[in-house]
Amino acid sequence: MQNAESELAKAGEALARAHRLSSVGEVAAGLAHDLRNTLGGAQLRVRLAANEARSEAQRENLNIVGRVLHDAVDTLGRLQDVARGRRGRRTGKADLREVISDAVALARAEPRLRVVVKLPPLPEVKGRAAELKHVFLSLLLNARDAMPRGGTARIAARRAGRSVVVTVADQGRGIDARNLERIFEPFFTTKGRRGAGLGLAVARSEMDRLGGEITAANARPRGAVFRLAFPIA
Q1: Which comes out higher in pLDDT, residue 112 or 25?
Q2: CATH class of this structure's domain 93-231
Q3: Is 232 left (phi over 0), alpha (psi -120 to 50) or beta?
Q4: Is residue 15 scored above 60 in pLDDT?
Q5: In the chain, domain spans
Q6: Burial of 1 (0-12, 13-18, 19+ CB in 10 A)
């Protein structure tokens, strides 16, 4: 009898927890919907401004902002799906040259960071452009933080069998050997209050989801290098 009452209490707690999670999911879905509408309006205004831009530089900058807003709207759409229990998610395929170009364009807003890119023609890889763009932007911002007095980050790529391997290298102080694996842990950071410790954790999670890989090593004579292996679509 006592066991039956205990099991009944556990079932009641589980039901209450599921109800609370469902309520939170609906709130998140509603907020995502409102934000999508707001960003969609901003996206339209940016597109109109780009069409009326007086110079090619202004037009290109506005187009970059437009693509960022498009990615944000797409991400909020997936958040709505997850919040409402629709967890099926296509991997899709992405053009790495385009993804890296957009990430570099955003990172170049940082005046002390110089980025050199050398990419051969590449096949499309598994992934969604919005997520992969944030992976590369996180790596470039980490490179910026590793070079407080300024420096160069270099991005290169090659095909290796059924994968595309991309390296992102900086000229910073490198990574303490004890932290080479820990840097991918959620909330681990060496930046103190300036860092949340989520950028590299999210990058590894995304690469794992695609069936790819991201690793870190120290470069010679100095700096760090991140190696990303993307499965070809």
Answers
A1: 112
A2: alpha beta
A3: beta
A4: no
A5: 2-83, 93-231
A6: exposed
